[in-house]
Amino acid sequence: LTLFHHLKEEDEEESKFFIRLTEDEGSTYMSLVPFLNLFGTILGYPASERFGRKPVLIATNILQIAGFAIMFFSSSFPVLIVGRCLTCLAAGLGVMVPFVLISEITTIKQRAPLSVINTQSISYGILASFLFVYFFQAKYLIYFTVGESALFLVLSFFLPESPHFLIRKGNIEAAENVFRKLRGPKYSGISEEVDEVVELMKKLNGEPENCLSRWTKRTFLQPLIILMFMMFFIALNGVDCPLNFYGPTMFAEFGFKFSPALISSIIPAGQLLGYIFAPLVMSVISKKKQYLLSCIIMTLSAGSLALSYYARSVSFTPVVAQQVGLALGCLGLTFGYGVGFGSVSYAMPGELLSPSDKTIGISIAQCVRMIGTTVIIKVYPMLVKTLGYPVVFSCHALTIMIASVFVLVFLPETRNKSLSEIQEYFK
Prior knowledge:
Mean pLDDT: 85
């Protein structure tokens, strides 16, 4: 995506390195991201349940390297798309597994903050890509992305398997060893953690079990519906589209003196800043209040973006007022997303779902986001052309307000509650 936007800034000699895409090819290239992420996410559930969390993450990075290699040596659009499809599928395959793994290796108090730190790392990657393209030639970005996957493969030797997965497979001793390595020799609560998972599994195994039984249980359906709505609101809040997908183009339209590739780094920087503060906020207030606080910030920011585009449409002066409104709106919208809207949404699957439901629940919720994002990307140019950015960003603000009401009414508080207590709530 960064390469696609950066093509416009390459000189003639550098551009020979790239395959020039038509507008239709460019739209197809970008819309593949959420679409194939969706299919990868669907495959991620059965894969991680059958083979384990760690093997799936290793396979994800091997597929990423293979996909980027195909893209590197491609000389035509169809071959480029094959490589792109492989990288997007791999990203979807592994995107939710870290959230599951982290929720299964942490203590109750650290479960949500560490899931936020995991999400924070995504923003580090996005920001690093934006800055890399600004400081170095865009053709070298592929080495950077391949290097990330290669580094993971080297460090995966130290990555533990999920103790919850090991317990469900009957490897109690292996699970205890993982807990012991993670908690340290002075920790005395390993037996309690293992027993809690075992008891939950016994309760589930004691109920009539078939391929459809999960879909009749309130302890699965109710949290799943909550998660699906929260992920759907992410697709509609304006961060995925237009900011993450069209950010550099938006900044170019406002005539900034700085390079659009540099100034648009505000977008991932705002998310990263929000994610940095999110664990601190989580330790002070409830997750519901944190989410509502972020909704206020994002609503005001979406309003700022709507006003900026309205000012541009009527040629309001000074122009710097339009530019400041755009920059502050983008920063506020992405900061609000990182500090609560996104961080709380991705912390919830590990808190609301039982160990046996966690992977499939997270995968389904993420699929809802990917489907929503795919549709929005395809219809967004038509919406902007028909309604204009002021109305579209006003709609984003309205969506965020609806999300805040939904969370206020339906999201239970999970702070310092065990898995058993949360499951009892949904019963």
